[in-house]
Design brief:
Layout lengths: L3 H25 L1 H4 L3 H24 L9 H33 L5 H40 L1
Helix pairs in contact: 1-3, 3-4, 3-5, 4-5
Length: about 150
C-alpha cells in the first residue's frame, strides 16, 4: 500500500524543487536561454499535479490507492494535470495577449507561437502526470509482490 504521507512528502519535495528551479530560472534567464527548460518544468509540474490528483481522490473518497486499478490511477493523474494545466495556459495566454495589446505588439504570428507553446506545455504536463501515475502503479505492484 502506498501511504498517503509518502505522497504528501513527495509532493512537498517536488514543489520545493520546482520553486527553487523557477527562482533560479528567472534569475539566470534559463527559460529564454535553455529551450528545453520550460519542458522540464512543466513535466515536473505534471508529476506534482498527478500526485496531487491521486491524493485528493484518495482523501475525498476515503479510498486506498491500492484498491484502484492501473487505468483509474492513470485517468485520475492525467485528468488532474490536464485540468489544471489547461486552465493555467488559458490564464497565461490571456495575460500574454492583454500585455501584448498594451504594448501594441499584436500579430497573428505571435498568436500562433503562443498557441504552439501552450500546446507543448500541456503535453509536457500530461507526460509528467503519466510518469507520476506509472511510478505509483510500479510502487504499488512492487509492494504487493513483496507482501506475498
Amino acid at each position: 500500500m502506498l501511504k498517503r504521507p509518502l505522497l504528501i512528502l513527495s509532493m512537498i519535495i517536488l514543489i520545493a524543487l520546482l520553486s527553487y528551479l523557477d527562482l533560479l530560472a528567472f534569475q539566470y534567464f534559463w527559460y529564454w536561454r535553455l529551450w528545453w527548460f520550460d519542458i522540464v518544468m512543466h513535466a515536473l509540474g505534471g508529476v506534482v499535479l498527478g500526485l496531487a490528483g491521486l491524493w485528493l481522490y484518495a482523501v475525498s473518497n476515503k479510498a486506498e490507492l491500492r484498491s484502484l486499478g492501473a487505468s483509474r490511477i492513470l485517468l485520475i493523474a492525467l485528468t488532474a494535470s490536464l485540468l489544471f494545466g489547461v486552465v493555467w495556459e488559458f490564464f497565461g495566454f490571456g495575460v500574454e495577449r492583454f500585455y501584448m495589446s498594451e504594448v501594441a505588439f499584436k500579430s497573428f504570428a505571435a498568436l500562433r507561437v503562443g498557441f504552439a507553446d501552450s500546446l507543448g506545455d500541456i503535453l509536457s504536463d500530461a507526460a509528467g502526470a503519466l510518469l507520476a501515475a506509472l511510478s505509483v502503479i510500479v510502487i504499488l505492484r512492487w509492494k504487493k509482490n513483496k507482501l506475498r
